[in-house]
């Protein structure tokens, strides 16, 4: 009997493994998302002195390869379990499994193999780095596998997908050092920024459907989401992200306050991208084509790296408390 994916796509079932389809299923073009590892590396370098740069570069390359392989394992799982609903999407129906170019049994084997290889490389970096890879893989299982399948639950879908951002930051941190841990306020800010990006992606996706019925057929949470509900959540995530980032700056590196306008510019630029028709926010692998957004990201990164290394006593004097710390009985 012909696989339903083949019937819907009009393609013949694969008689042998198509390596190009397997590569497409691993989505190497999505590896761009692992750029979220680098802030963890940069912040850790700002707090820890590296004595052996050769060994550090080796760990960095090995760590990036490992996290990309684990991410590809997650993308493979996503494609296996999303194939039935992807057939309702204008472009995702052409992915390897919905179009019948890859056997599901081989896809499951690829899922396990990519994770095993990634973990084998990760353990060579450090045990804590490998633990962060395992957490990234586990959250993909929570996100995709029934009965939990958090991607079907409104708001929980955004929170559970965006938590990959702080996990990636932790992974970047542990590439540099295992002697200390990333500050909780920074991780919370990174999580909320990820939620901001993910909620905007949902907003852009929802705008691409002609009606709610077809949107809900593609993603169950779209039966609940409306543009208004998503916009409200986007505002919440943006405010929370900046609140936690401010808390991190006040406690750990006050100079970073000067980067606030650029961080806001990145968030505003992403909002502008998400509001475009057929937005690149729906396809993160295309974001590098958005010159305005990429320019803001690069400028922000450069400024933050400088502020992490350069002390500015004037900033500390400018924001020092001026109100009395306490009042006497007669005041």
Sheet bearing the most strands, described? Answer: none
Name of the CATH class of the largest domain: Mainly Alpha
Helix content: 55-70%
Tally of domains? 2
What gyration radius follows from the Cα positions, in whole Å?
22 Å
Number of strands: 0
| DSSP helical segment count | 14
Strand content is: under 5%
SSE string, helix = H, strand = E? Answer: HHHHHHHHHHHHHH
CA(first)-CA(last) distance: 87 Å
CATH topology of the largest domain: Tetracycline Repressor, domain 2
Mean pLDDT: 88
Shape: globular
Low-confidence stretches: 1-16
Judged by helices, strands and strand pairing, the structural class is mainly alpha
Named at the architecture level, the CATH assignment of the largest domain is Orthogonal Bundle
Within CATH, the superfamily of the largest domain carries the name UbiA prenyltransferase
Describe this structure in words.
The protein has about 325 residues and is an all-alpha fold. It has two domains: about 15-180, UbiA prenyltransferase (Tetracycline Repressor, domain 2); about 185-315. It is about 65% helix and about 0% strand. The chain contains 14 helices and no strands. The chain has helices spanning about 5-10, 20-25, 40-45, 55-85, 105-125, 125-145, 155-160, 165-175, 185-205, 210-220, 225-250, 260-275, 290-310, 315-320. The longest helix is centred in the first third of the chain and has 34 residues, at about 55-85. The chain is globular, with a radius of gyration of 22 Å. It starts with a helix and ends in a 13-residue tail after the last helix. The model is unreliable at about 1-15 (pLDDT under 50).
């Amino acid at each position: 009997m012909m696989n339903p994916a083949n019937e819907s796509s009009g393609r013949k079932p694969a008689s042998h493994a198509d390596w190009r389809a397997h590569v497409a299923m691993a989505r190497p073009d999505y590896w761009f998302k692992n750029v979220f590892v680098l802030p963890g590396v940069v912040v850790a370098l700002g707090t820890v002195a590296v004595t052996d740069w050769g060994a550090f570069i080796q760990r960095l390359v090995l760590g990036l390869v490992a996290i990309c392989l684990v991410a590809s394992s997650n993308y493979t799982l996503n494609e296996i379990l999303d194939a039935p609903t992807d057939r309702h999407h204008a472009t995702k129906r052409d992915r390897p499994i919905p179009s019948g170019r890859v056997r599901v049994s081989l896809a499951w084997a690829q899922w396990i193999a990519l994770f095993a290889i990634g973990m084998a490389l990760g353990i060579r970096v450090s045990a804590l780095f490998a633990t962060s890879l395992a957490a990234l893989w586990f959250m993909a299982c929570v996100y995709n596998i029934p009965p939990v399948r958090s991607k079907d639950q409104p708001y929980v879908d955004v929170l559970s997908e965006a938590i990959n951002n702080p996990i990636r930051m932790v992974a970047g941190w542990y590439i540099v050092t295992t002697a200390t841990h990333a500050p909780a306020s920074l991780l919370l800010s990174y999580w909320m920024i990820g939620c901001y990006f993910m909620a905007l992606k949902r907003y852009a996706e929802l705008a691409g459907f002609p009606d709610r019925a077809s949107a809900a057929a593609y993603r169950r949470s779209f039966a609940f989401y409306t543009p208004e509900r998503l916009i409200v959540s986007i505002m919440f995530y943006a405010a929370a992200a900046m609140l936690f980032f401010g808390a991190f700056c006040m406690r750990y590196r006050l100079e970073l306050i000067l980067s606030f306008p650029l961080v806001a510019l990145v968030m505003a630029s992403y909002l502008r991208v998400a509001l475009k028709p057929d937005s690149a926010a729906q396809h993160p692998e295309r974001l590098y084509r958005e010159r305005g957004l990429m320019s803001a990201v690069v400028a922000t990164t450069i400024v933050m790296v400088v502020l992490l290394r350069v002390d500015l006593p004037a900033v500390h004097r400018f924001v020092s408390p001026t109100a009395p710390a306490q009042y006497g009985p007669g005041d």
